[in-house]
Amino acid sequence: MFRDGAIQPAADRLTVRNPWTGESVGTVARDTVSDMDAAVRALRDSWRPLRPDRRAGILNAAATLIRERSGELAELISCESGVCIAETRKETERAATNLDVAATETERLRGETIPIPGQDRLALTVFEPIGVVAAITPFNRPLNQVVVKVAPALAAGCPVVVKPSEQTPLTALAFAEIMLAAGLPPENLVVTTGEPGVIGPALAGHPDIDMVTFTGSVGTGRAVAAAAAGRKTLLELGGNDPLIVLPDADLELAVGLAAQGAFATAGQSCRGIKRIIVVGEVADELVAALVAAARAKRAGDPMDPSTDVGPLISEQAAITVHRRITDAVAADAKLLLGGDRNGPLITPAVLDRVPAEAELVVEETFGPVAPVIRVADTAEAIRVANGTRYGLQAGVVTSDVAEFSAVAAALRVGAVNLNAGPHFDSPHIPFGGVKASGVGREGIPYSVREMSVVKTITLPYHS
C-alpha cells in the first residue's frame, strides 16, 4: 500500500506479469480489508483542504515530472499492460495534459451572488470539496485512467484513495510517488492494491468515503454502485461504439478512422470503434480498403517501436475475443483478414456482413476487431446503432450536415462526432454515456464539479 507518502511493507504480495512474456514485472501488496480500512480512516482524520493556488502548483509540477519521466513511464505501462510502446509514449503526454487542465480548473471553481427576490437578503454560493474520493480504475491505459480521476479530485480539494486494477497497479504506484515529489502532502493520497472482489466493494462501501468514481465493466460497476449506496457515484461502464458511414462519406477518411479506432490499444478501449455500420453500396469499396489498412498493421512484441497491435491483457481475454469471432463466422459473417490467436495475441481482424445480433457486436468486444455491419438506409443504421445496452460515443462520416444533425439527434449516446470516430477525446469536454454505459460525466472540468458540492450562504442584503 502507498500511504503516508511511501510504499508500506506487506505480509502478502501479488505478482504483476507482462502479458506478452509472462514474466514478472514486479510485486505489490495484497492488502486486506483491515489494511484499507485503517488507511481510509487515517486519511479522513488527517486531511485538510489545500488552497486553490497550491493545488494548481502541485498539479502543474506533476505534469512537468511526468514529461521528464515519460520514457520510463511508457516502458512500465507497456510491460504491465502489453500496450505498444508507441502508444504508451502518447499516454504519458495525455496524462500530463490532463494534469495541466486540472491545474487551470482549480481557479475556475467560482460561486455567484444571488439577490433573493422579495426578500432583503443576498445569497452567496461557494464550491467545497465533496470529501474523500475512492477511485477504482481498470487495466487499460493505467496511467491516464488514474490521472483522469485523481487530478480533478485534487483540483477540487479532495483526498483520494486509488484502487488500480490488480493487473496494472505498478503505474498507479509510480504516479503516486510523482504526486508526492510534486509537493502533494501525504495525507491527500492512498493507493491500495489487492484482490478486486475483496478490496473494491469494501472501499466503495466504506463509511468514510464520500464519493466513488469507477471505470470498468457493467457488472462490476453495478456491484460498486450497490456497495456505494447513499454516496455519490461517477460510473463509466464501457461502450459498444459505432462508426456510421453514410453513402456520401469520404471513404479515405472513414477507413483511416475505422482502422485507428478498432486497432489502437489492441481494441481495449471503451471509446474505441466496436462496430462499423455502413449504409448502402459504398460498403464494398470501404471493406476492401479496410482490409488493406488492417493488413499493414503489425502485431507482436509491444516493446518493438514498429509494432502496432500488442497482446490483450491476458490469454483468457484473447480466448473470449477469438470465440466471438468464430461465433460470428458461424452466423454467416465473412472473416476477410486476421482473427488468429497466439496466446494473448489476436491478429487484427476484419469481418464483413456481421449480423447485428452477433455477440461480437452486441457486447463490448475488447480486441483488435473491425466488424462491418451493412444496412440499407440511415434509419436502419440508427436502429442498429441504438440496438445494444450501451450508449457511450459514436462517430458519423458524411458531408451532409443536415443528415448528420438528424442522426445525432436520434442516437442514444453521450457524444456524437462528425467526421471523427467515437474515439475522439479532449480533456476539455464532457465524457460519459447513457443506458448501461454509466452515470455522470468525466472530462476534467466536469469531473472537478462532480467532485465538488455547492454551499449556499445567505445574509442580510443591507446592513
From TrEMBL:
Belongs to the aldehyde dehydrogenase family. It comes from the Bacteria. The lineage of its organism: Bacteria, Bacillati, Actinomycetota, Actinomycetes, Mycobacteriales. The active site is at E236. Residues 11-457 form the Aldehyde dehydrogenase domain. This is Aldehyde dehydrogenase (NAD+)/aldehyde dehydrogenase. Keywords: Oxidoreductase. It holds the Pfam family Aldedh. One of its GO terms (molecular function) is oxidoreductase activity, acting on the aldehyde or oxo group of donors, NAD or NADP as acceptor.
